[in-house]
């Protein structure tokens, strides 16, 4: 998870925002956010929505993409524990746009690309219903 730490080191504004949140929420959160991100691979799917909510406070596109990527890996691992699948960059980009930017998205991809996982992941990561 050095990418996460490096992202926070490179973004002093994100570090300051994290510090302000820690001061405001002192005593309410037992595990620092960086550690929670490192533990995504072993989290229950129900806990991922909370990680997404916390990640939205950073307002850093590269950090948001890292969190989405890790969450997608966790969802894929849940669906097939024997495989080590990695999400496509387009899947991460589309989910980031839907979740953090609240924008519309159009993904045109071949059959078998993994478009359906975006609907599934959106529901898991936001708690909202997809149709």
Topology:
Elements: H1 2-10, H2 12-24, H3 33-38, H4 48-55, H5 61-79, H6 89-99, H7 116-126
Largest sheet: none
Tell me the number of strands. Answer: 0
Radius of gyration, whole Å: 15 Å
Total helical elements:
7
Task: Give the distance, in angstroms, between the N- and C-terminal Cα atoms.
Answer: 34 Å
Helix content: 55-70%
Strand fraction: under 5%
The averaged pLDDT comes out at 81
Low-confidence stretches: 24-29
Q: Based on Cα principal axes, name the global outline.
A: globular
Word description of this protein:
The protein is an all-alpha fold and 131 residues long. The chain has one domain. 59% of the residues lie in helices and 0% in strands. The chain contains seven helices and no strands. Helix 5 crosses helix 6 and helix 6 packs across helix 7. The longest helix has 19 residues.
